[in-house]
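Our consortium's second objective concerns turning raw sequence data into structural hypotheses that experimental partners can test. To show how far this objective has progressed, the report includes one record in full. It was chosen at random from the queue rather than selected for favorable results. The single chain below, 276 residues long, was entered without modification.
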Amino acid sequence: METLSTSSNNSTKTNKLTTYERFVIPTNKDLQAIQAYSRVANTDDSTKTWMNLFNSYREAANFTNPLELLDDTTLQEQLCQFFCGVRKSGKKEYAPSSLHVGFAAIARGLSDIFYPNRIINIHDKHKWKRLHEIFDGRIKQIQDNQDTSCKKTDALEMCEIKTILDSPNIQTDTPKGLTYRVWFWLTLLCNLRGGDPKRLKNSWIVLNEDHSIEVNIPREKNNAGGAKNPYNSGRHNYIPPDLPNNYSPVADILLYQSKRPKNCKTSEFFLRINTP
C-alpha cells in the first residue's frame, strides 16, 4: 500500500502531517484479501452442498439447459420443483429448519453465479412470489405431517443426564432447585428448544388418570409457521408414569404445579421465584 501524501507550502516544521496522510490507497490484492474476510467457511460449505444438490436434481429431472442461461421464469419453476421434490437419502423428508438453511444457501449460490451480469435475489418475495408461496406451503406441509412426538438424538449421554439430575443445585427442596429440575425434565422429555419452555402454559400440561402427563403445545396463533418460522409446529408429548425407585419427572412436575398460587392470574407455567 502507498500512503497518499501531498505537500503544502504553508506546512510548518512543527506540523508536518497533511490532511490526506491518514488515508491509504488499497490495491486490488488488498481489496480481495479484505473481501475474503467476509466469507465464512461453514457458510461456503453449506452453499456448495445445496448448489450441488440443486444441480443433481436438475440433472435427474432432465433440465438440460445451463443454469446461467435460464431466464427468471424458468429458474423459478425449477426451484419450485426442487423444493417440492428434494429428499434426504432413503426418501426421508428434510426438517423444515434444514430446508430453510437450503433456501438461504441456494440464494447465495445463485447470486454468486449470475453476478455481475444479472442480479438474482430469490429472497425478493414480490419478484419470486410463486417460489415463496410454494416454499411456504411445503414447510407447512412438513410441519403438519411430521411426527413431532418422536424422540430425537440426545445431545447428552445418559451418564451426563444422571449427573445433572443428581446435582444438589436442581433438587426439589428449594424453589430455585425445583424450577431448574422441572425445566430440565420438560426440555429433555419434550424435546423443547430455545425459548419453548418460557412460553409453556399451565393448561397445556395435563395429568392423565394413569398418572402420566401430556404436554400439548399448539402452534402459535399469531404465527402460522411455514417459511417464516420453520420451527413453529404443534407438539404432542407424552411423559409416562413414574417407576418405583427411580427418577420421578411426573411427581416433580406435579409438585411444581402445586406451588402455584391460587390467585395466580398469569397463564404461563413457569413463574418468577418469589424471594423475600
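The partners drew two points from this record. Confidence is low (pLDDT under 50) at residues 1-8, 10-14. The beta strands are 2-3, 24-25, 205-207, 213-217, 235-239. Both points have been shared with the crystallography group to help prioritize constructs.
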